Amino acid sequence: MAIHLGMWIVIFLLPYILYKTNDRPPPAPARPDARTSFLYLQVLTDILWVMVFYLNALVLIPKLFNRKKFLDYALALVGIFFTVIAIHGALFRLLAPERTFRVLNAVVFSLAPFFLSLAASAVWEMWQAKSRADKILREKQQESLKTELAFLRSQISPHFVFNILNNITALIRMKSDDAEPAIIKLSSLMQYMLYETDQEQVLLKTEVSYLESYIDLQKQRFGKRVPVTSTFELENEWAEIEPMLLIPFVENAFKHGVGMISQPRIDIKLLTRDNTLYFDISNKYNPDTLEIKDKTQGIGLVNVKRRIELLYEDRFSLEVTREDEIYHVSLRLHLHGI
Questions:
Q1: Residue 98, number of CB atoms within 10 A of its CB
Q2: pLDDT of 184-209, one tens digit each?
């Protein structure tokens, strides 16, 4: 709207600017209301240039110029110009009957606003075309992003279920009394995966509840062999996060933090302060088996790293370190809904 307004101010003032630069003074009006009549004439003529602008931008350029019908486009412009001159002449005779209308003077005087209207409409149409192209590109990118995220989520769920079923199988083989509670807990996790993860975002407290259930399942499997400490402190339980975003880090800790490891230990801490989620998880690992596990089971971390990049762009930090046989992940996220 501002572009249109500024452009029409220029076009409306142009005749007065040209008229002022003319050395010849205007003739005195023949009747008292002649000045008012000329003002009406100028306003009506300016409306004609407005019509030329939109006719060129909305009809001639898309239907003729853009289709490379240049001869038809040029003929149309000539026809429009002389139509405007004819209408202007009719208005002139109607509003200033005591004055003589000269076609040549009208043509010379009208060339500048005519070409200015054409140029302005061409620039506006180019800008509109670019805006439309940019919008289509953004929609395609957004659709591509949604498709990729959906694909990444579809990878997470079966990968997670596969790991949990292996856990339950181990409990059944050990004839553990924890097998039945584990199946019930898995059922609640499956319900979350099936009915909650289709949403773009879930409540952080729901995601944390999911993490706690998963950790409980792992504790049932390993018992006292793998000490696990977990701390969750939510400043605002109504914050939102993308579903299944944190679980791969926990899976990774149990994947690398158990087995042929002396004094294994897993520590998980999640807290929120202000608008930021702080998630730290560490586990001991065996350097001799880490590379083998990465090659055979490394879907989860690669997946979640890609999801975070797509969803949070520059609103996150992720650091993964390996030092003194301790594998540590530190994630910082700017949360939604706080």
A1: 9
A2: 877 877 777 777 666 778 889 988 98
